[in-house]
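=== Structure Prediction Worksheet ===
Name of assembly: unnamed complex
Input type: mixed (protein and possibly other molecules)
Chain count: two
Listed entries:
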Amino acid sequence: MKSLGNIRRAFAPWTDPDAKPYITFRNVTKRFGDFTAVDDLTLNIYHREFFALLGASGCGKSTLLRMLAGFERPTSGEIILDGQDIAGIPPYKRPVNMMFQSYALFPHMSVESNIGFGLRQDGMPKNEIAERVAQMLKLVKLEKFAKRKPHQLSGGQRQRVALARSLAKRPKVLLLDEPLGALDKKLREETQFELMDLQQELGLTFVVVTHDQEEAMTMADRIAVMSHGKVIQVATPAEIYEAPNSRFVADFIGDVNILDGKVSASGNGKIELAVAEGFTIRTATGSTPATGSAAGFAIRPEKLKVTRAAPADASVNAAQGEIWDIGYLGDMTVFYVKLDSGKVVKASMLNAQREVEDPIAYDEKVWVSFGETAGVVLKD
Amino acid sequence: MKKLGSAIFSRLVIIIPYAWLLFFFLIPFFIVFRISLSTTAIAQPPYEPAFAWSDGLSGVWQKMGQFSFDNFVWLTEDALYFNAYMSSLWIAGVSTLVTLLIGYPIAYGMAQAPRTLRPTLLMLVILPFWTSFLIRVYAWIAILKPEGLLNQFLMNIGVIDQPLIIMNTNWAIYIGIVYSYLPFMILPLYSALEKMDNTLIEAAQDLGCPQITAFWKVTFPLSIPGIIAGCMLVFIPAVGEFVIPDLLGGSQTLMIGKTLWNEFNANRDWPVSAAVATILLLILVVPIVFFQNAQAKAEEQGR
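=== Predicted Assembly ===
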């Protein structure tokens, strides 16, 4: 079996049945009046994991984070951190710190007083505070800005101060609420990798809330895709992308073509799906619903191959269509192919060569083909 | 042409406040100052001017050396004036402090109230202004006098059996000033507290502050510009207050506003009362300059 596990590093405590989760949400529900923000949610997060909560706004991801920080109390259920139920512990006594989306830097304090705030609160001796603050400033490369006030800093620098402040107390868990949301694209990409390095270096557990799937995919060991207060899928970025467990996840993460059909044969881990487009898909991946039941088939655009000639190998799935639109993006070209049934599928092909002889053009008759492990069957 | 027009317009906009200051502050002040340099006389108006407007600038310049500051010297010779200034500053200071202690929790409560309720609360704070100031002060006489509402109430519920003597004492003045100036304290405080970002409090809690510590370390320091504005708005007019000490205070009450009124109306000594007013202004200009500095600093910080 080929791996869809953690590509970034050899770290997968969730696959070990003996591993003890570091943070556990057990049947947690949070209601605000009539509105259920988090709905009977159960989730495990492991020590030293970089965990992302991903979802559209209003899906409950921020509420989950705020419950972990202690700003909200669950209506029911329990939250366990390092073996201790923390539901009743006020935020100022929790061994977790949060980096706020707005950074929430204290405007009347200098950068160093901001970073040292939590340490002073703990009554740490003065010389130790100075030492720790200097260490934190070095970590985020802001040594020269120690005496500045937050309003004298750029957005990226403020973000670093907020990060340093939340790390200064050496929390057991660092919570990050849209940590890169206010940065521009280039800075965001740089900072993503800095955050990952930092997390590895400090050996901390990070829980990050984001609505940006690219951000989550890049940084996280595992992603929880959330919708309407429920976790839809928890898996590594590769699993989420290549083996989504539902139509929602397939559609939410990246681009996808979904073909609907009926299972015509099922067995031996293989499935034949007669799709509405008038052909039969043979596939060996995804869920295995019973023969006769309705199912969807999800396939990513880059897994589709567009050719003029029919594929030589008859076992390859293939359908005929016509080029409907072409998008040239530089690094790749996106073909919108109108299948004979009228359904338009999206296929992207890498432009590996600078010049292509006789490129496929508008209105041409083409074949769209894919192998039997290229897509996944989704249960409805 | 259009450019010229807008240049003239922008000049005009700057001129308006300066013209206002010139006509309604500097020139009147200069007139008062001129009177303070003159001597009393049985005349209409009752003083001998130190110089005539008709002397022109050069004439005034020549007479400058002969200006008599006798009236200012007189203020230092009679302890009455010094005591009146001191007691005014003291009464205004204590009243300002009490107003702050009452006003801060009210403003804080308003800023914490649900967003939909805030306009109503704000309206309630402003509501007293809809009745004449004088009438509201008279109403306090009815409340505070020995047979007034307060004493009747306290005696009826049996807390006291002798009426409290509040009316015509400094207590009545404190009550009157605190009551009258409370809105001026609440409004700037509310506007400072209402702007406060709640995530700052959450951040403080997250970093280990219980709610009360978070208030003292974050909310309070950030509301200081509002506190200064409120204190100035109460302190400055309270120092020169005349109506409240006159109506609620007793004969032994010493406040500079009342002293000034006596000099002007009872003694018909315009020059001395002008000198009293000039010194009062100087005493008040110092806190105003201080206030403006603080505000400039706050603006700098807000940027």
